[in-house]
Amino acid sequence: MIRLYARHKLKARELPEEYRQLADYACRRLDHCTFGERKTACKDCPIHCYAPERREKIREVMRWVGPRMFLYAPLIAIRHLLEKRRARTESRR
Question: Cα(15)–Cα(48) distance, rounded to whole angstroms?
């Protein structure tokens, strides 16, 4: 998602260093997530493990990319919606 944002919103051919660091940070946070495979979306998580300034930067990226996912990455978008639906169904049990 960060690459899509940089390529289409920022018109950058290469991922700018600031966004490369953001992607690395996000991956490290996911690798160390307390919830592991049972992780929900970060916005729904009871534990906010992102630093406030990075959380806001990720929100900015997600706000722009989210509505455009069906255009740029339809398979990923469909998979995401299916996983979200499955997670909601499991949480109701």
Answer: 26
